[in-house]
Design a protein that fits this description.
Blueprint lengths: L1 H6 L2 H4 L1 H8 L4 H19 L4 H5 L5 H9 L1 H9 L7 H13 L20 E3 L14 E4 L8 E4 L1 E3 L9 H14 L3 E2 L7 H4 L5 E5 L15 H8 L4 E7 L10 E3 L6 H7 L7 E3 L9 H14 L5 E5 L4 H14 L5 E5 L10 H6 L4 H14 L7 E5 L5 H10 L3 E4 L1 H7 L29 H25 L13 E4 L5 E3 L11 H5 L5 H4 L2 H6 L14
Parallel strand pairs: 4-13, 5-6, 6-7, 7-10, 10-11, 11-12, 12-13
Antiparallel strand pairs: 1-14, 2-3, 8-9, 14-15
Helix pairs in contact: 3-4, 6-7, 8-18, 8-19, 9-19, 13-14, 14-16, 17-19, 18-19
């Protein structure tokens, strides 16, 4: 690893001996090599650009193209999403907001406003000016003694191990500066999460990292030690993630460093396994018992679940278990199948799990139909980056949003897609100690802070333009969608909406299939609180 890490310095380091060799032949050539060596040294020492810091001298080529050809810089901003990968436009926007640069655009829209799927917010002739400092939602009110006022925009789950120590530190320091939450991911709470004191959402997955017994089962005593830390504000039980739902994972023993072993509570010299399913519960009712147990052990902190919706009947089973037991999570985070990860099988990334918009609406509708929506807050994650992304999720039923790749871009990620190789060129997704030095924590933390702050300012502008006082007032009626035949309708006319208590009413009728829409008619009547999915025949 050290040889691979140091090899990228070779072009720069070679300029020193070349300067000496060239002197007898051509003083001018020697001087040129000497200048190149000095430029490389400046790159190596500067703290603003991770690529130049990790690739002295050669990394300048990336920025030289942007300087020499200004239109290439605009290329990232101006090409519509039909012609480019989703992230390129968004990455340029994040870079501008995190660096407090001008993120405005001249000469009008770059989008074809008449393409099917185009969306826009219906503005008002009486716009307002909401204060983004008030954009928070209280989670856990009613059944928690330590309810938490959560920002509407937070850092989604990314584990230490997938991210470098410096990346974790920068994210948490940025969260502390901005007063928003940092989800630990399933890798548990490391010393790097604690260093700057930012608010944490502790994610617990099937490996029970940070609260496990030696054989990999849940350990209540170790959970209490972590959960009662004042820095931990909420606990999130991860059932599945959008990028690879229904799939476990293995961190090879060669990558299990002493720091990772300490954070996760696993031994050195062994593969670190994340099973595909939990061992602490096996039915929907047992899941809710587990949630209630965690709330009690944590001292009354909000406890919720995170899932990418798969079989609708399994989600309905959880809802029916809530009705049967009276136990509910404090929140549900809906992860979309379009969400990312450091490494996922291609088939899982492309073809498993429900996309965010469908899953979010299904969860919201089912809780409304079961009369539970007021008790449970909903978060959304899965390619959420811009203020409009947040507004759309709120219209579909979310109370707040989480973002992973947006905050990775703020750290300097250039989306080289080498996360799984440990060769991340910007030091974000690597455990290589040489590569991760590219991230200067204080500098990147400021970018994380500004990306969050400027995105919420943009959201305030959108909400105000719609004539609304707060983001929670956004409804499907405020968004317009163009359909395949060219006609535009409100989002409300394009999606299914369940009336409050509709699922409860259907329980007392013999023709539920005729009174419920689509998936509800197909799966709700046969789903069971005692089994995952439909009741056994």
């Amino acid at each position: 690893m050290a040889r691979q890490s140091l090899s990228r310095y070779l072009p720069w380091l070679m300029t020193a001996p070349l300067a000496l060799v060239a002197w007898p032949l051509s003083p001018w050539a020697s001087a040129a090599f000497a200048v190149l060596f000095v430029l490389g040294w400046l790159d190596f020492r500067q703290t603003k650009q991770a690529v130049r810091r990790n690739y002295p001298l050669t990394g300048r080529l990336r920025y030289a193209l942007e300087y020499i050809r200004p239109e290439l810089r605009q290329y990232f901003l101006e090409n519509d999403e039909e012609k480019l990968p989703f992230s390129r436009n968004q990455r340029a926007m994040v870079y501008a907001r995190s660096k407090v640069e001008n993120d405005k655009r001249g000469f009008g829209s770059i989008k074809d406003m008449y393409s099917p799927g185009t969306e826009w917010i219906a503005h008002s002739l009486q716009p307002l000016q909401p204060d983004p400092a008030t954009f928070r939602v209280r989670v856990g009110e009613g059944q928690c003694t330590q309810a938490y006022d959560l920002s509407l925009f937070n850092i989604s789950g990314m584990s230490f191990g997938a991210l470098s120590p410096n990346a974790v530190k920068a994210l948490n320091r940025g969260a502390a500066l901005g007063g928003f939450a940092h989800d630990t991911g399933e890798g548990s709470i490391s010393r790097h999460h604690r260093e700057h004191g930012g608010d944490l959402i502790w994610q617990i997955a099937s490996g029970y990292f940070g609260c496990r017994t030696p054989d990999g089962h849940f350990d209540p005593d170790r959970f209490v030690q972590q959960a009662q830390s004042p820095q931990v504000k909420m606990i999130e039980v991860k059932l599945s993630q959008g990028a690879k739902p229904g799939h476990g994972g293995v961190l090879p023993k060669a990558k299990v460093s002493p720091e990772i072993a300490e954070a996760r509570g696993v031994p050195m010299g062994q593969d670190c396994v994340s099973p595909a399913r939990h061992s602490a519960f096996s039915t929907p009712i047992e899941l809710l018992n587990f949630v209630t147990q965690l709330r009690q052990l944590s001292g009354g902190k909000p406890v919720g679940i995170k899932l990418c919706v798969g079989h609708p009947a399994e989600w309905f089973s959880i809802v029916k278990a809530m009705l049967a037991t009276g136990q509910t999570p404090d929140f549900v985070v809906v992860d979309g199948a379009e969400g990312g990860t450091g490494a996922a099988p291609i088939e899982f990334a492309d073809h498993v799990g429900m996309p965010l918009r469908d899953g979010l609406r299904l969860v919201h509708n089912s809780l409304v139909g079961a009369g539970l929506r007021e008790r449970i807050k909903i978060g959304a994650s899965g390619k959420v980056i811009s203020a409009f992304d947040i507004a759309r999720c709120l219209a579909l039923g979310a109370d707040w949003c989480n973002s992973a790749r947006g905050f990775m871009f703020a750290l300097g990620c250039i989306q080289s897609r080498s996360c799984h190789t440990d060769h991340c060129p910007t030091g974000v997704a690597t455990q290589d100690p040489v590569r991760q030095r590219a991230i200067v924590v204080t500098d990147k933390a400021e970018r994380v802070f500004y990306f969050h702050a400027n995105t919420l300012h943009a959201l305030a502008d959108l909400v105000g333009a719609a004539g609304l006082k707060r983001p929670g007032d956004i409804t499907p009626h405020h968004l317009m969608v163009r359909h395949a035949h060219g006609n535009a309708k409100s989002l409300a006319a394009s999606i299914e909406t369940l009336e409050a208590g509709a699922l409860l009413s259907s329980e007392n009728t013999d023709n539920a299939a005729d009174t419920l829409p689509n998936l509800f008619a197909e799966f709700w009547p046969s789903s069971s609180a005692h089994h995952w999915g439909v009741s056994p025949a």
